[in-house]
Structures are given as C-alpha cells and as structure tokens.
Amino acid sequence: MDDSLTIKSVCKFRGDTQVLRDVVLSIAPGERLALLGHNGAGKSTLIKSILGLTPVHGGKISICGAVPGSAAARAATAFLPESVSFHPAITGREQLTLFARLSGAGADVVGLLDRVGLSDALDRRIGTYSKGMRQRLGLAQVLLGKPKLALLDEPTSGLDPISRQDLYAIIDELAAQGTAVLIASHALTEVEARTDRIAILRKGVKVADNTLASLSQQADLPTRMRITAKSDQIEQLAAHVGGKRINGAALEITCSADQKMEQLRRIAALGDAVVDISMTPPRLEDLYRHFSKEDGQ
Q1: Domains and CATH numbers, the chain
Q2: Gene3D superfamilies, alphabetically (predicted)?
Q3: I need a labelling partner for 11 at 20 to 30 A (CA). Which of 28, 51, 55, 234 fits?
C-alpha cells in the first residue's frame, strides 16, 4: 500500500536562510508519527508546506499521490493548528455543521461533538468556550470525512489530563481506520507511548527517524540501575559494583544495553545484601537530547 504522505529531499529557504534541508519523510496509512524539534527547527514550515500554504524550493511532497494545495490533497487532509480559532458569535453545532457542508461530508454533527466531549456545550456560542473546548471543537473538525492524513500541531495544547487521554484515544481510532497521523509536539512523555515512530528535526535537518526501540539501540544510551542494600551491607555492595551513593542506602550505576544482564547477575550473586533494584532505560527525553545535540556535544 502506498504511503499517505511522501516527502522527498525537500528544501525551503526564507531569504538567505535555509529552514528545511533535504528532508525525507513518509507516513503509511494507519501510522502515527511524532515530529519533534525545538522552536525554529522547521516543524511548522514543514507542515505549511504539506498543506500547500508555502512552496518548497526543492524536492517533492505527495499526499496520496496528489500535489499539496490541490483539490485532491485538500480533500484527503485534515489539520488541527496549535491555536485554533473560530467565529465567537456562532455555536459549536453551527460551526461544525458549516464545516460538514463545506466538505460535503454527511456527518453526525451531534455525535462528533459528543465524541470530543462537547455535548453539553454544542449550542453555546464559541466565544464562551475555553481554549481546551475550542481545541476539542477543532478535533471534531478533523474527524469529519475520515481524512487520509491528519496533521496535528500541538494537539493537547490547553487540554486537561483527562481530555489529553481522550484525545489520544481518538487519535488511535483515526489510525485504526487507516488515517496517517502526524503529531508535532513538545509533550515528549505523551507521544512516547502513543506513536509508532519518532522523527526529529534540528535546524531544518532530519536527524532521527525510527521506532523508539530502534532509536534507543542506535543511540546506545546507558541504562540506570538503582540498588538498595541493607543498611549494614552498603559498603560491601559499593566495593562490589561501584557506582554513586544515593541517600546513604542505595547505589546508582549505569551500563550499556549489552551489559545489563551481566550486571544483574553480579548483583543477584550478592544475595540477601540487596533489598531492591530498579532499572530506568533511556526515555524519549534522553533520546531527543541525544539526537538534537542538546547533551553538550
């Protein structure tokens, strides 16, 4: 099956400054991709280029085989901006009904508003909505017409924790129906567990693009182990495994992924001297810092 989004060697200049440099990216139907990067890394420019709002100066972008900005590409794409805005004088029901008519989608407007948690506010004027409520209305718009590609720019902005969980449940539903989902976000903890692949931009260059497990293997960052010992055994433990003392009763050591089992066997050999052990593998935040070169390199 062809990819829903294909980006080949895309370059973009703003004056004399190159803001995208030979970016290659693709998203398959039903795949959820997290696009990460600092402010100014090129995420928003890339999204605008996918939407056909700004031309590229090299390379090619294809949405289900269509050119960005064409009628076919617009029909296949849904977009949720970070700061979504609607006319304040109309109601949520009226706004979504208008969007449904414009898109030609025979949508269950009331059902969609209920799905995003706005059933109690569907006949209230949007001017009375909080930012989180406007964000949920924007998400209802994304659900119209079962898009082939959904571009979500900081989709959890303004949402409370429960609403964030609901939003990712809806993203999962979109992916399950075959929608390719691109999520541009700074919320690393959220996207770590709810996306299939991670892509990282740094100063317009794609510096990483793979699954979390593959990126961890590629980065070869250490796993942290914290070992708690009996109070009278901490010195013996420190002499045996080394590491850094924590609060007088624990040790913290680091090891590479291929050394983890050997270290565990060494610690297990100490028997009752060890009270507890916990392991913390590299998280997305660690990988992000590594690939975006924010680790002092």
Answers
A1: 5-217 (3.40.50.300), 222-281 (3.30.70)
A2: P-loop containing nucleotide triphosphate hydrolases
A3: 28
Q: Does the reported pTM lie above 0.90?
A: no
pLDDT by residue (tens digit) across 112-159?
Answer: 999 888 999 999 999 999 888 898 899 899 888 789 999 999 888 778
The confidence score (pLDDT) of residue 180 equals 96
* Residues forming beta bridges with residue 153, ordered by sequence position: 184
Query: What is the per-residue pLDDT for 1?
Result: 59
How far is Cα 111 from Cα 69, in angstroms, rounded to an integer? Answer: 30
pLDDT at 269: 79
- What is the Cα–Cα distance from 288 to 270, expressed in whole angstroms? 36
Q: Residue 54 in contact with residue 239, Cβ under 8 Å?
A: no
What is the chain written as a DSSP string?
---SEEEEEEEEEETTEEEEEEEEEEE-TT-EEEEE--TTSSHHHHHHHHHTSS--SEEEEEETTB-TTSHHHHHHEEEE-SS----TTSBHHHHHHHHHHHHT----HHHHHHHTT-TTSTTSBGGG--HHHHHHHHHHHHHTT--SEEEEESTTTT--HHHHHHHHHHHHHHHHTT-EEEEE-S-HHHHHHH-SEEEEEETTEEEEEE-HHHHHHHHTPPEEEEEEE-TTTHHHHHHHH--EEETTTEEEEEE-GGGHHHHHHHHHTTGGGEEEEEEEPPPHHHHHHHHTT-S--
The whole-number pLDDT of residue 295 equals 47
pLDDT of residue 296: 42
* Token pair recorded at residue 270: 């100490």
